[in-house]
Amino acid sequence: MPDDQHENERESHCSKEAADATNAERKHLEGLLKDRINFHLLFASVFMAGVSMINNHFVKLWALITIAIVSLLIALAVLRTHLLVREALKDIKKDRYHPYTKYDHIVWFHVNANTLLLAVPFVLTFFFLGTAIYYFVLPFTASVDTSKQLSTSTVYRIEDNSDHRIMSAPEKSPPPIRSSTPSSRQKHKAQ
């Protein structure tokens, strides 16, 4: 009987170590997933800001094709990381005493947040691809040169005609003017 008890303790110890290793790996993978999604958002924002400044139609088209390809590659990397996180969470859910398992049953919204975030890089990839297709089809449907339309701008000139004096205190009224002519002094004395 003591051998069975020792064997159960060893299995419990091994399963505790395995659970801790799985949890550590899950944390690492979720951090990696977060970093990849954040990088994708930053990459997409900076690239789109740069593309918006391009006036040449064909350079803009090739830039959009490039961003669509790179975005797809990042989206696939995010997908793989997500699948690894999902497998780690499946292992963790087997432990009914793990906090994640307890909290997962309490929350009313049972969709995994990582699954929701997984859509972001794919949505952006389809947007870039759709925009590239638009710029590819545009020359065949319109005879208008878009580079000239995009480069025109309106300049507003604002003139400031206000007085720029700084008023620090009310101005003192000037002293009364006295006449120093002899005839005016005599008139005052005569009265």
Topology:
Elements: H1 2-52, H2 57-93, H3 99-106, H4 113-141, H5 146-151, H6 182-190
Helix pairs in contact: 1-2, 1-4, 2-4
Q: Report the helical percentage.
A: over 70%
Q: Residue ranges: pLDDT <50 for 5 or more in a row?
A: 6-13
List the total number of helices: 6
Number of domains: 1
Helix-and-strand structural type: mainly alpha
The major beta sheet can be summarized as: none
Strand content: under 5%
What coarse outline follows from CA principal-axis ratios? flat
Mean pLDDT: 77
The total strand number stands at 0
Compressed to H and E, one letter per element, the order equals HHHHHH
Distance between the termini: 138 Å
Radius of gyration: 38 Å
In short:
With 191 residues, this protein is mostly helical.
Highlighted features:
single chain; 191 residues; mainly alpha; 6 helices; 73% helix; 0% strand
